[in-house]
Amino acid sequence: MADYMATIFPGKIQKIAINANLGCPNRDGTIGTGGCIYCNNASFNPAYAHKSKGSITKQLEDGVAFFSKKQAAYGYLAYFQSYTNTYADTEKLIELYEEALAFPGVVGLVVATRPDCISNTLMEYFAKRFGNLAEENHPYLLVEIGVESTCNETLERINRGHTYECAVSAINTLYNIGVSVGVHIILGLPGESREMMLSHATKISKLPISTIKLHQLQIIKNTPLAALYMQDRNFVQLFTPEEYAHIVADFIRILPGNIAFDRFVSETPPSMLIAPSWGIKPYKFTEMVEGCLKPEKL
Ligand code: SF4
Asked: Is residue 39 within 6 Å of ligand 1 at its C-beta?
């Protein structure tokens, strides 16, 4: 991902997670209730964001203070991460995004959302502010679309509330207006075989995306999935780290080299995680994947 950012910016870029408290249409009844079966949004936020509950500006101040102790950055991307970050009136969304863009050092946004929740008026704003119709030297925007699976049967099983075709349509529209797109996929969802998981890579490789995030399925406390898992431990087949590293390596082999991997694993705070408990740092896991990709292991 650092290599991908280096093609856009001349120095180190740090993402700062923002919680804009925009809610989710798959929880409030607009699209569904109960949310996706694996979702507990409290697990999304990094430690510094848990402490930062204020305005967008306050959260950016806290994030910059936290990261600048570690390493100087060329610029920051305000990462609208929790819940559905395009779920509000366009005017309100523009106000939030522009507040972030006005913060010193912020060079762009990453907006995580569902594919069925980007209005036409918001697409117009994206095109004019960040895309084909934007002024020169406009800020950067990456819209991160939660695809999760390319199998509609799985999407129904996890109560996702949209189809894969819906995700394809949103991705194509964003690409056509000149906005970079990232996708999020979960490996290990209930009912999915290894072949089905790798078929996600084949289908996604045909889409006009710039980045991808892979996550292993995790059973997180206070989710419908946790209740199903407690009733029946065989409801999902959880990976060992080695099994997961191998499937990630196979996934990488299928995707074209111009799609950047943002991350391979998610790190839920141990206090919220039921299983699998790997205790492996992301950089260590990356080393395991690299080991699987070495020619002698082919
Ligand atoms: S994963 Fe996203 S869409 Fe699903 S319930 Fe959570 S916030 Fe809503």
From this structure: yes
Q: By residue range, what is the domain housing residue 181?
A: 2-297
> Which neighbouring-strand residues pair with 142?
110, 180
Mutation choice for ligand 1 from 84, 162, 217, 220, CB with most ligand atoms inside 8 A: 84
CATH number of the domain that residue 177 is part of:
3.20.20
Distance CA 287, CA 81 (A): 26
Q: Which residue owns the Cα nearest ligand 1 atom 2?
A: 83
Who contacts 160 (Cβ-Cβ below 8 Å, separation ≥6)? Answer: 26, 36, 148, 149
Pair 269, 49: CB distance under 8 Å: no
Q: Ligand 1, from 19, 21, 36, 162: best to mutate by most atoms within 8 Å of Cβ? A: 36
Angle between helices 241-254 and 282-293 (to 10 degrees): 60
* HEC sequence for 118-187: CCHHHHHHHHHHHCCCCCCCCCEEEEEEEEECCCHHHHHHCCCCCCHHHHHHHHHHHHHCCCEEEEEEEE
For residue 101, how far is its CA from the centre of ligand 1 (angstroms)?
25
**pTM of the predicted model, to two decimals?**
0.94
**Closest atom of ligand 1 to CA, residue 84:** 7
pLDDT, one tens digit per residue, over 85-140 is: 999 999 999 999 999 999 999 999 999 999 999 999 999 999 999 999 999 999 99
Cβ proximity of 244 and 252 under 8 Å:
no
- Please count the structural domains in the chain: 1
User: Does the beta carbon of 211 sit less than 6 angstroms from any atom of ligand 1?
Assistant: no
- Mark 240-273 as b/e (b = at least 16 C-beta within 10 Å): ebeebbbbbbebbeebeeebbbbbbbbbbeeeeb
Q: Which atom of ligand 1 is nearest to the CA of 26?
A: 8
